[in-house]
Amino acid sequence: MNHHNQISNLLFEYTHRFDSGDFASAAELFKHAEIITGKNGETINSNQLLGIWQSMVMTCEKTGSPQTKHICSNAIIEIDEQNNTASAKSYYVVYQQTETLPLQAIAAGRYHDKFECIDNQWHFCERDYRMLEMTGDTSQHLRDYNKAETKKTKD
Predict the structure, then answer these.
(1) Which end of the chain, N or C, is less surrounded by CB atoms within 10 Å?
(2) How far apart are CA 7 and CA 92, in angstroms?
(3) 53-73 per-position pLDDT tens digit
(4) In the chain, where are the structural domains located?
(5) Mind listing the pLDDT tens digit for each residue in 27-46?
(6) Contact (CB, 8 A) for 69 and 94
């Protein structure tokens, strides 16, 4: 498999693992990565990311999934074969449907990722999660996010 396809597969594998509710294996994809989450560039590791997902993301009792579909598209992948590194910019849209929530987009934004090739295997080495640009009804998706938004509205 060529480099471009391997990196594309990493982008897509994340969405499949997350949407199935397998947060541990989704986080495992970032075991070599720094995940940028703070406004000033603060980073967390894959174990911290897993903890956030497990505490914030609501899952369906019957299926164990968050009842979401992450669509990752418009990926622009640049590979530096000399240094065994790559970068990618992509868009994402998260759709959700539950028993009480009709199918709708609940979030949209961009991912900026960096990759490194170790032993002929590409890995995430950085993901910037700060580019959430549009938010819909996340009341049946994120626990603490909704509490924080409610508190902001009341303040």
Answers:
(1) C
(2) 16
(3) 999 999 999 999 999 999 999
(4) 3-154
(5) 999 999 999 998 899 999 99
(6) yes
